[in-house]
């Protein structure tokens, strides 16, 4: 630790300054009353273009981006670049889907994706499944943010094994929980400005300064190629090969479809002031994809610099690279950028998961007459519980690459696509069919995840998201993204069950719709082509 005093001082100063902003955010753009989900959980639905751009960027480009993607390139090579095409694919899709979801949510006062499903299909059961799915899928994503903070602390020598050694991470966890509880969505929205500026600064310096010290890009790629050529793994290398091409394609497509199904992504969009804000942001957000490409290359730079992970924790390679290549004071800035880059999305994710619990479990099944203040209070408390659940994911799953935490969450959240994304454009699916599809897809996805091994961590189960096709009896070493196969199972079963329900004359109406829960305005031009009635 004595070798990192300057880094620790700079990191701590920036971290505390940003945390202070989180508490002050309760008074930023202050409403008359924070005690409602619309204010605490959605920032009053009042964010304009600039705030939304930083908020959604801070929401989507997380420790997954700054720690997990370079770590995957460090360990597996070109397969880690799947994150680039997936972010390119996702924005045109989101442009179509999220503008429509914002309009419906604005007209009907909806807060969560499950709120929409409840109104669209008149099924509290289906809405409950969507809510539970969103909460469970968000847990590993929050865990990934904590892994990013932990990697930085390890590099500075202030974290290790045992409860006492993890005290700095626990303190960061408590600070995050406190300002999220007090300020709601306004806290990460305000902090996102600082986070993104720091990240852009660090990465732009890194892609110029570090290659210059390592002999240029030819030397960096040459060292990476030499490393992968010396390993027996069939799927690594600076180029894709026959063993990992299918995994790459399905992973990119599956991740693109999953990204804006996550509750925190929807929360960022619904906090926007109007449709034009979303349109402008979906056009400008691809700028982050360019940044992502540069960040990913840090994995190859770490190879060329001879960086070794701390123990078996591959997630420490980027912090280790910064520690080796930068002056101590700038390494402290870089560590703060990574740490703050984890806090912003963790806050948004916990808020989004808490909103799901409050609106679609507590209000639906515990207290149907809950006031706005009661809803806000429950969400605040649940946001704390969600963070504890994220810590349990770290302890129980412990994958080799932290990116697998996000990809496992993707397998889960993809099972809401038929109800949420397709539901925005068609009511053809029967609510019973959608429930059957969810059960089949979720069962298939979890079964595939359970049998995926990770020899590096000696885990026989939940070792990642790359499902070997050999387990289906095929004579091949190829793998495929488990979430992609699970979604196919979901869609097929949902379609077949819908046809069966139609053939049997099963009623397609509501199974307990409460019309009083929403204020419908079918004449609104933004949703005039969307039938939101509870009957066909």
Protein model, in words:
Helix 5 runs parallel beside helix 11. The C terminus is likely disordered. It is built from 22 helices and two strands. The protein has a two-stranded antiparallel ribbon. The longest helix is centred in the middle third of the chain and has 39 residues. It is mostly helical.
Task: Explain the layout of strands and helices.
Layout (H helix, E strand, L loop, with lengths): L4 H20 L12 H4 L8 H12 L2 H14 L6 H26 L4 H9 L2 H32 L11 H17 L2 H29 L2 H13 L15 H15 L3 H8 L4 H10 L2 H10 L1 H7 L12 H9 L2 H39 L5 H26 L5 H11 L3 H4 L10 H21 L14 E3 L10 E3 H23 L32
Antiparallel strand pairs: 1-2
Helix pairs in contact: 1-8, 1-9, 1-17, 3-9, 3-12, 3-17, 4-7, 4-15, 4-17, 5-11, 5-13, 5-14, 6-7, 7-8, 7-17, 7-18, 7-19, 8-18, 9-17, 10-15, 11-19, 12-17, 15-16, 16-17, 17-18, 19-22, 21-22
């Amino acid at each position: 630790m004595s070798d990192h005093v300057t880094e620790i001082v700079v990191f701590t100063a920036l971290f505390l300054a940003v945390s202070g902003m989180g508490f002050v955010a309760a008074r930023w753009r202050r409403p008359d009353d924070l005690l409602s989900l619309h204010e605490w959980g959605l920032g009053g639905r009042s964010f304009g273009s600039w705030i939304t751009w930083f908020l959604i960027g801070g929401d989507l480009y997380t420790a997954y981006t700054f720690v997990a993607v370079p770590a995957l390139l460090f360990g597996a090579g070109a397969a880690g670049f799947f994150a680039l095409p997936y972010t390119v694919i996702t924005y045109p899709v989101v442009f179509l889907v999220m503008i429509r979801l914002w309009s419906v949510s604005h007209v009907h006062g909806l807060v969560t994706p499950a709120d929409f499903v409840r109104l669209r299909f008149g099924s509290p059961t289906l809405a409950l499944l969507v809510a539970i799915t969103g909460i469970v899928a968000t847990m590993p994503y929050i865990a990934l943010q904590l892994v990013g903070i932990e990697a930085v602390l390890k590099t500075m020598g202030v974290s290790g094994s045992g409860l006492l050694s993890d005290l700095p991470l626990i303190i960061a966890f408590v600070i995050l929980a406190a300002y999220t509880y007090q300020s709601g969505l306004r806290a990460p929205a305000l902090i996102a400005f600082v986070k993104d500026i720091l990240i852009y600064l660090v990465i732009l310096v890194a892609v110029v300064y570090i290659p210059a010290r390592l002999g240029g890009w030819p030397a960096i790629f040459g060292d990476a190629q030499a490393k992968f050529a010396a390993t027996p793994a069939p799927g690594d290398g600076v180029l894709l090969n026959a063993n990992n091409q299918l995994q790459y394609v399905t992973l990119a497509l599956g991740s693109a479809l999953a990204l804006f199904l996550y509750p925190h992504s929807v929360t960022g969009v619904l906090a926007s002031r109007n449709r034009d804000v979303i349109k402008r942001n979906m056009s400008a957000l691809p700028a982050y994809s360019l940044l992502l490409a540069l960040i990913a290359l840090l994995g190859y730079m770490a190879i060329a610099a001879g960086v070794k992970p701390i123990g078996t924790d591959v997630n420490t390679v980027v912090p280790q690279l910064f520690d080796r290549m930068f002056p101590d004071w700038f390494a402290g800035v870089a560590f703060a950028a990574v740490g703050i880059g984890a806090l912003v999305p963790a806050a948004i994710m916990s808020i989004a998961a808490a909103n799901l619990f409050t609106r679609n479990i507590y209000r639906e099944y515990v207290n149907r007459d809950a006031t706005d203040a009661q809803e806000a209070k429950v969400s605040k408390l649940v946001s704390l519980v969600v963070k504890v659940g994220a810590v349990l994911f770290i302890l129980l799953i412990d994958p080799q690459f932290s990116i697998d935490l996000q990809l496992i969450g993707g397998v889960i959240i993809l099972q809401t696509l038929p109800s949420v994304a397709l539901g925005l454009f068609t009511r053809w699916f029967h609510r019973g069919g959608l429930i059957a599809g969810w059960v089949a897809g979720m069962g298939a996805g979890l079964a595939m995840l359970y049998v995926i091994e990770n020899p590096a961590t000696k885990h026989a189960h939940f070792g990642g998201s790359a499902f070997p096709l050999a387990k289906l009896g095929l004579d091949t070493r190829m793998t495929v993204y488990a979430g992609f196969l699970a979604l196919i199972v979901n869609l097929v079963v949902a379609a077949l069950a819908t046809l069966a329900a139609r053939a049997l004359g099963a009623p397609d109406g509501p199974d307990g719709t409460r019309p009083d829960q929403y204020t419908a305005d079918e004449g609104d031009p933004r949703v005039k082509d969307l039938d939101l009635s509870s009957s066909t």
